[in-house]
What we know:
Structural class: alpha/beta
Shape: globular
Low-confidence stretches: 1-8
Helix content: 25-40%
Distance between the termini: 52 Å
Largest sheet: 6 strands, parallel
Bound molecules: 5'-deoxyadenosine, iron/sulfur cluster
Number of helices: 13
CATH architecture of the largest domain: Alpha-Beta Horseshoe
CATH class of the largest domain: Alpha Beta
Strand content: 15-25%
Number of domains: 3
Strand order of the largest sheet: 2-1-3-4-5-6
CATH topology of the largest domain: pyruvate-formate lyase- activating enzyme
Amino acid sequence: MQPVKSPNEAPAKTFYIETFGCQMNAHDSEKVIGTLQHQGYTRVESEEAADLILYNTCSIRDKAEQKVFHRLNDYKKLYSQGKRFGVLGCVAQQEGEKIFERAPFVSLVSGSASYRKLPEMLVQLEQGKQHITGLDDRQTEETFETEFTARSNSHRGYITIIEGCDKFCAYCVVPYTRGKERSRTSTSVLNEARRMADAGYTEIQLLGQNVNSYRDPEGKRTFAELLAAVGEIPGIRRVRFTTSHPRDFTHDIVDAIDAVPTLCDHVHLPVQSGSSRVLHLMQREYTRDWYLDRISWVKSAKRPISMTTDIIVGFPGETDADFEETVSLLGEVQYDGVFAFKYSPRPNTPAISMADSIADEDKSKRLQALLDCQREIQRHNYAKHIGQEIEVMVEEYNAARGQVIGRTSQNKTLNFTTKQPILPAKGNYVKVRVTSSFPNSLVGEAV
Ligand code: 5AD
Ligand code: SF4
């Protein structure tokens, strides 16, 4: 029998959310989803099925920003069916009320620094208010902490330890879209980590736009001490952290990795350019040699630590010689992964008005040359694992290939087969012998 609805019962409220951009955004969405569910909303999988359609947006590069306006355009017809639209995240903070001019059917515009006010904003939305804004351009001191986070994976999960950014690199919108740096107390981070361990999580990834710029408001722990403390929680087997800034990369981080086996064998340390001249123009506040010193610390750790980086090609004024220095840096460091991007001019940033912009065609050529060079480095690096036995966490299955997809502590994908009749469950840890390799993945057999 169908349950009888009382006439006073509120109508079912459904929402659809799509997330663009980085891990910070992915995790913000998990918190937004939890908050909405706590407010009585049910998540649905399509725009058509939803009363409220949310886009959590990214504005790091122009392409990412355009995506959200395309999406809004594709679905605006649903407005006539009474559906409401909200734009969250970095494009929301950057464009603010201009979004209402460009897309008048949007009802809610909120940057990430205002998500703690979401419950109030949702009430206003339900009361029929037309244009609701949560915009906090570098004003707020508060972080968005919620006990209602709806994590999408039940084995590994994110914890934000610091929000915002105070670095003001010349190309980057983040200091304008995510507000000033503000750290959570280490007590609250550790409480969240312990709750996750109790709930069966074995891997925790500490997040921040500048994660190692973390400053405990209680003054109890440094970033390295917090890392170690999370790694020592019973039940936690893997701890990762992202993204580190070279300026704040201190030796005690490597010492913590040496001392605490659960801290993963991987450091992501964005360099952006191998030319000290370009680094100066970018306002990165370090030189090539200074960066390479940090790399040498990582390389002299007691166990092999995988290194990855971010690169921007075609920053204004970058000459062929500057670019060659970036290519030579890749050879020197021998990264296991590089995220490379063509420079994209962003509103409000100092670089937007810099002279000597690079033609898109040249940026594309440099990007391709860089990726070609890096592919060979990775082919060589990944092949070194052949014959090793490596522990992976099971992530997924590739039914077509009959493979299990695992992830190593070094954050490499290791696809493997097993002779066991029953496949290992997601989240399990399995020892795998590596039998062959590609530039981006390893292949093996369960031991
Ligand atoms: N253009 C291109 N890439 C950028 N990034 C940040 N801002 C820009 C921009 N304006 C890259 C940097 C950063 C990564 C997250 O995105 O490499 O580390
Ligand atoms: Fe994109 Fe940066 Fe915003 Fe993340 S913080 S969504 S990378 S603009």
